[in-house]
What we know:
Blueprint: E1 3-9, E2 16-23, H1 26-31, H2 38-47, H3 49-57, H4 62-87, E3 100-102, H5 108-118, E4 132-134, H6 135-146, H7 150-153
Parallel strand pairs: 3-4
Antiparallel strand pairs: 1-2
Helix pairs in contact: 2-3
Amino acid sequence: LLQIGAVHFDINTGEEYSHFCTPVSLKSCEDVNLQSTQDTMEWLLKHSPQVLEASEKSEVTIFQALFRFNIFVREAIRSTRHRLEESGRLYASDISEPMIWGNGAVADNIWIDSAYAACGMSDRKPWTFKNDMCVRTLVRTASDILGRNFAREERFQGTRHDAL
């Protein structure tokens, strides 16, 4: 992991409430035996050198990054619960449980889960496996059902291969 980034948003409206992003020290990931391949490093050098450079310079360890991410997620849970209570939508005990959306069924969420495990923090992860979600799967399914290509219709915003 070179970065951890997240956006707290309303799944029903798309409204964004808050953001989290931190570079993660590449060395600290290696120190807990998180591994990368030579191909991955070459790909990063070609497609995302600024993210790799920020990670190499970062003093934020993977432990610190996960701890800060936990604080962000827990605050998002509190904020969501408060919003739902105010709107009268808090009708199920698990409606304010966080859904963690990654971009790829075998990518982001698995990588961060591996980081929690490598750091001995699996029991501190603030969501359960049933709330691991995949944006790519959702977009592909919606495209197939609706006969549209959302990836081509929507203009990309942001910096490619940056956590936010």
